[in-house]
Design goal:
By secondary structure, the protein is α/β, with parallel strands linked by helices. It has helices spanning 19-30, 46-58, 72-86, 109-134, 160-178, 195-202, 207-216, 226-237, and strands at 10-14, 34-39, 62-66, 91-94, 140-145, 182-189, 248-251. Strands 3-2-1-4-5-6-7 form a seven-stranded parallel sheet, with helices on both faces.
């Protein structure tokens, strides 16, 4: 049986205090990675305490930096702290982002700019800063987090879906221009069990009914887990995936296979 072995590697993962980022950090640590994580939460917050506890339980080392990932200075701080602590970066998982659902007509320029800075530009900026370290051993990996909204979307999800669609182009460009020393891959999750998705369910009069309605639209009859996203991320970052670059993988439980909601 082939096993994913990332022992001794260092992964920089953004947005680790909850949700998908925490799930990815957990699985990468289980595979042997030291984790340099970041987020907007304070170091003594519940989410960050959980992050440190999770990585410790997996037997590797953790570093956390509170920052604004849209700030170039904060990006530089994150990379510099990672190198100071671990002396290298083998894997970048640029995951941090937030839903900006405004609609094309009512979206303001300020909301557009915030969305593009966080959900697109930050991925590019952090990738550029990590590039010199990722290419040192010739096997660096960048994983950019996009969304199922990059393939198919619904009314009202503008401008989030625009930024997430653009990430697929970023994946292609980095793979072409920075290969072969760096592989770049995109992951596009659908409905994942996260606090953010639960908040969306809770916005309906009957949250449980809406949740079940959503589950029923998936051929697998369940929502995804953050650990499942992390497992695929670990595979893509491993030596088992050395022929994979320049593409974005949809992880949506078959939801997009449905022509209509039936």
């Amino acid at each position: 049986m082939l096993a994913i072995n990332l022992k001794g590697k260092t992964a920089l993962v953004t947005g680790v205090s909850s949700g998908v980022g925490l799930g990815i950090a957990k699985i990468l640590a289980r595979a042997g990675c030291n984790i340099s994580g970041c987020g907007t939460s304070a170091e003594n917050s519940e989410g960050v305490v959980t992050f440190f506890k999770t990585i410790k339980e997996e037997g590797t080392q953790a570093l956390y930096t509170k920052l604004d990932i849209t700030s170039k200075l904060d990006q530089e701080l994150l990379v510099n702290k990672t190198i100071a602590a671990f002396e290298k970066i083998d894997i970048l998982v640029s995951n941090a982002g937030v839903n900006v659902f405004e609609g094309a007509e009512r979206c303001s320029e300020k909301q557009w700019d915030f969305n593009m800075d966080l959900n697109l530009k930050a991925h590019w900026g952090l990738s550029r800063l990590c590039k010199p370290y990722l290419e040192l051993n010739g096997t660096g990996v960048i994983v950019l987090m996009t969304s199922n909204h990059s393939n198919y979307t619904i009314p009202g999800c503008f401008p989030y879906n625009v930024a997430k669609t653009a990430i697929k182009g970023l994946v292609q460009s980095l793979a072409i221009e920075w290969g072969p020393k760096i592989r770049t891959v995109g992951i596009a999750p659908g409905f994942i069990e996260t606090p953010g998705n639960q908040k969306w369910f809770d916005s309906f009069p009957d949250a449980e009914a809406e949740r079940q309605k959503t589950i029923d639209l998936h051929p697998v009859k369940k929502l995804g887990t953050t650990e499942e996203v992390g497992q695929f991320c670990a595979f893509l970052a491993s030596d088992l995936a050395t022929f994979i670059t320049g593409t974005t993988y949809l992880i949506d439980g078959g939801r997009s296979a449905l022509m209509q909601d039936t």
